Amino acid sequence: MRTLMIASALALGAALASQAFAADTIKLRDVAELSGGGATVGTNFKNGADLAVEEINAKGGILGHKIDLTHADTQSVPGIARAQVQKALDEKPYVLLGPGYSGSVKVVASLAAKAEIPEIIGGEAAELTQMGNPYLFRTSFGQQSTMPKVARYIHDDLKAKTVAVIWVNNDFGKGGRDTILKEFAKLGVKVVADQSTEAGQADFAADVAKMKEAKPDAAFIYLNEEESARILKEIKKQGLKLPLIGETTLVGQKVIDLAGDAAEGAMGHVGLTTDAPVPAIQKFRDAFKAKYNYVPDHNGIKGYLAIYVIKAVTEKMGKIDSKLFAKTLHGMTIKAADEPGILMDVTYDEHGDIDRQGFLVEVKNGKQVVKQILPKLGK
Amino acid sequence: MTGPRATTRTLWPWLIGLAGLVVLLVLPLGLARYGLYILSMWAVMTIAAIGLNLTLGYAGQVSLAQGAFVGIGAYAGAIATTNGLPFIAGLALAIVLCFVVGWLLGYPALRVQHHYLAFITLAFSTLAFLVFRNEEWLTKGIYGITDVPRPRIFGLSTDGPLAFYYFCLASLGLVSLATWWLIRSPWGRAFVALRENPVRALSLGVDTRRYTLIAFALGSVLGGIAGALYAPLVEFVDPTPFTLTLSFNLLMMVIVGGSGFFFGPFLGALISVLLPEWLRFAHGYYLMLYAIFVMALLAWSPTGILGIVQKLIADRRTRRASATRAAATATFTAEKSS
Amino acid sequence: MANLLNLLISGLATGAIYALVAIGFTLLWQTSQTINFAQGEFVMMPAFFILAALHAGVPFWLSIIFGVLISLLLLGLVFKKALVDPMLKHGVLPIAIATMALSIGMKESVKEFFTAEAEPFPSLIPAGNVNIFGVEVSLQSIGVLVLAIVAVTALNLLLNRTSVGHQMQAAAQNPTVARIIGVPVERMILYTFLINAGLVALASVLITPIYLAKFSSGEVLGLAAFIAAIVGGFNQVRGAIVGGLLLGVIDNLGAAYISTQYRGAIPLFLLIVVILFRPQGLLGRAEERTV
């Protein structure tokens, strides 16, 4: 019994002691939702990042240094995310990646800032970059920049006076719903149905029936990919005909594959999509598919981009310096012509938010068709 | 289900407790922030697991709501302290709430049938999560409560990781002592009597329902205390940690460590909280390996790791006893024949 | 009105799936006091067995047969021999905990060895709607309902009209007496495990085209089946059917007319009310009180 305790204590000490420092590698640490509710998000992000690391290392690394990237699992719980981020920070990485859940980001962002280590996140919740944290960077549009575009499209182009908002009741869905409701209020679009759904919900009969009774001119659907597919199927089943507008998660190839012809006609704003008419993205998609045997969602692209952002910034600086990294990236534009891995030109602002070309797409014949190209806001 | 013997006359528990305490006091001095955080997390989860062990290990009641009580405690603590009340007020609120809710929950379930407590608590767990998430006016909903302050104890700040660790450790110490006293009190003996043979306990005049309820409510209170510590540890409270998964995990901690053993929750929580560390070599497969480990362990020893240890000690003792006996017999016969 | 009918039918179709899963749940409980917390994952797995075969280029119908056989083997035979049997002597709780661990293990293995993504799954039943009394009802809902009814009827015939069925019931109700009168109790218990495996495989084939195949899709189903079993009556096959159908309908009506935010709470209230006022379940026999 005593030996057991001592053995545990020893093992504990050994486990907690910091790892040997390999001087000639660039140390990156990813803390992601690899199990629990966010497993799909985290796994995609991880795979995308691993792919980028593999590509870069095969070509000799960044400034001649190989990348050393490891992943830790938050189990989708902020308390564990905090532990894993603390651990990652104790190892003094160059840049921290993740986590995905906005709640977890809120817990850990100040830790990374205190350690003066930049953190590249996948989260899209509007408030994250409003906290005045100089070390936090996104890889995709925040909701505060996508929702106005969507709301304006519903109001200006679709001429909808009333709208139903269907959202998934987690931090992602609630954040989007709260943001777009404000936009609708500004534009004078009336929300006639405001319905929450559960993550992982399978049966949408009741939700669609309720939406039908509200008789909106259009519906804004903000769910995860598979729930989007299920509700599209249900909408078709109940014979409801109205314009359906969403985000990447409504019109992605994954949704089209899952929902089949029920996805026809769905429209959405898309920031990152494997279906964008950009050759670099198509190439990324094929490489990803070859390695993991499935087509990634936007989280896969985010993970991939995060690594290439690090590469671009580091090569611009010409040295490895976490503090300078954060300073350099603010206000920096990375051009796909210079760094093909970045896929599309991107500009970071002083909050760590990004500006990039976006698309308004519609699903036609099982494919995304770009209806409008939304130019970068900045220039 | 056979439990361990209620009393041990040996000094072993004390020695182990002392050795463990020394390790826990000295070890952190050489640790980085991560190590301190995870040890604090261990202390918090151990408190919750001790509570469940009281309900399950000593009183024999399966509760699938311990995670929800940790949640109630965390929200009580976070709401109180972010509104300017001192930590102790949040803690008191957590204790009272968990006791009352535990009592209200257990009362009807235990009125009908013992194993219905498991079902009721399962339902309650899910309900509690929905309330945490949906009642935004109170809990700030899915966005969670940020900047939960760490307490000042006797004017000392526990903001630093080491200070907060010692605070958690001290809380664990107090809870352990209180539990140690409780299970040796007449109440504790009544709990064990309930688990071992409810019918006999009833016939001996033990008010079984009342004692079961007390055990359940006290176990829930410990969950609440753990929650009140969890909130300032993470400095953030949102609904996602308090799903059924946490209740399952706590249950597994108790069973893996050894339910009904005083030190079972300590060991079970250690294994669970440090899981990603133990199985670091396994990368993404660590939860899978843990699952296999739990299944294999239970097939071998339903009383967990400490059950195995106890069996080994008992075996050795019998072996030693029989060896002494054999030797004695040999001497005896040798003397006779000479 | 049209909406209401639509909701009813769709609720019944979902409820029929819950019922299939809940029946297996109660069977395991009756014959071996196994509370299977991995029951939801048991429904998730067969879909992936079938998908694995499909990806290997096997035709759909053959893949289904393959999936069902693997399910019978792994979720029936191996589950019983490797997990339940060694633990049976330790009582109810260790098995329950072990099945919790099993559910984690199953989810994680699908995620690691297959995919963390949702996968589409081909449907046995053609898509499309039929018009009943002026209401558009999907063929899938009707198909699921019909197949589930056929399966349950067949199971009832097996249990009540055949000698094996009678022996199974005897083994479940009083194993000691059953053994004395010469019922091979062990084999009967094995049969119930195989029946459970068959039912979850059927549920999997019926539900996955609608729910999609994903490692986590068993979580909701497992909980629903659990509630359905208790609401209907833990010791009755009939109870599980009624519980499942009731739950499906109540869930749909509740979400439509009461609250979507608290949708998950409505079945739980039902559960609590039933435990308080009719603890043996709506159709269950009262068990003796332990104390």
Keywords:
heterotrimer; B: 338 residues; mainly alpha; ABC transporter involved in vitamin B12 uptake, BtuC; two-stranded antiparallel sheet; globular; C: 291 residues; 11 helices; 2 strands
Topology:
The complex is a heterotrimer of chains A (379), B (338) and C (291).
Chain A: H1 2-16, E1 25-32, H2 39-58, E2 66-73, H3 78-90, E3 95-97, H4 102-114, E4 119-121, E5 136-138, H5 143-157, E6 162-168, H6 171-187, E7 190-197, H7 205-214, E8 218-222, H8 225-237, E9 244-246, H9 248-251, H10 253-259, E10 267-270, H11 279-292, H12 298-317, H13 322-329, E11 333-334, E12 346-348, E13 354-356, E14 358-364, E15 367-374
Parallel strand pairs in A: 1-2, 1-3, 3-4, 4-5, 6-7, 6-8, 8-9, 9-10
Antiparallel strand pairs in A: 10-14, 11-12, 12-13, 14-15
Helix pairs in contact in A: 2-12, 3-4, 5-6, 8-10, 12-13
Chain B: H1 12-26, H2 33-58, H3 66-82, H4 87-112, H5 116-134, H6 136-139, E1 145-146, E2 152-153, E3 156-157, H7 161-184, H8 186-196, H9 198-203, H10 208-234, E4 236-237, H11 244-257, H12 264-273, H13 275-278, H14 286-300, H15 304-337
Antiparallel strand pairs in B: 1-4, 2-3
Chain C: H1 2-32, H2 39-55, H3 60-88, H4 92-113, E1 129-132, E2 135-138, H5 139-161, H6 163-173, H7 175-180, H8 185-211, H9 218-232, H10 237-257, H11 265-277
Antiparallel strand pairs in C: 1-2
Short description:
Chain A contains 13 helices and 15 strands.
Q: Explain this structure to me?
A:
- Chain A has 379 residues and is α/β, with parallel strands linked by helices.
- Chain A folds into two domains: 24-141 and 280-348, Rossmann fold (3-Layer(aba) Sandwich), CATH 3.40.50; 144-270 and 358-374, Response regulator (Rossmann fold, 3-Layer(aba) Sandwich), CATH 3.40.50.
- Chain A contains 13 helices and 15 strands.
- Chain A has helices at 2-16, 39-58, 78-90, 102-114, 143-157, 171-187, 205-214, 225-237, 248-251, 253-259, 279-292, 298-317, 322-329; strands spanning 25-32, 66-73, 95-97, 119-121, 136-138, 162-168, 190-197, 218-222, 244-246, 267-270, 333-334, 346-348, 354-356, 358-364, 367-374.
- Chain A is globular, with a radius of gyration of 21 Å.
- With 338 residues, chain B is mainly α.
- Chain B has a single domain (12-337), classed as ABC transporter involved in vitamin B12 uptake, BtuC (Orthogonal Bundle), CATH 1.10.3470.
- Chain B has 15 helices and four strands.
- Chain B has helices spanning 12-26, 33-58, 66-82, 87-112, 116-134, 136-139, 161-184, 186-196, 198-203, 208-234, 244-257, 264-273, 275-278, 286-300, 304-337, and strands spanning 145-146, 152-153, 156-157, 236-237.
- In chain B, strands 1-4 form a two-stranded antiparallel ribbon. A two-stranded antiparallel sheet of chain B has the order 2-3.
- In chain B, a hairpin with a 2-residue loop joins strand 2 (152-153) and strand 3.
- Chain B is globular and about 85 Å long.
- The termini of chain B are far apart.
- With 291 residues, chain C is mainly alpha-helical.
- Chain C has one domain (12-218).
- Chain C has helices spanning 2-32, 39-55, 60-88, 92-113, 139-161, 163-173, 175-180, 185-211, 218-232, 237-257, 265-277; strands at residues 129-132, 135-138.
- Chain C has a two-stranded antiparallel sheet with strand order 1-2.
- In chain C, helix 9 (218-232) packs across helix 10.
- Chain C is globular, with a radius of gyration of 19 Å.
- The termini of chain C are far apart.
- The mean pLDDT of chain C is 89.
- Chain A binds chain B through residues 1-2, 4-6, 8-9, 11-13, 15-16, 18, 34-37, 71-73, 76-79, 82-84, 86-87, 89-90, 101-103, 106-107, 127, 169-171, 174, and chain B through 12, 15-16, 19-20, 23, 27, 30-35, 37-38, 41, 133, 141-144, 146, 230, 233-236, 238, 240-241, 245, 267, 270, 274, 276-278, 280, 283-284, 286-287, 305, 309, 313.
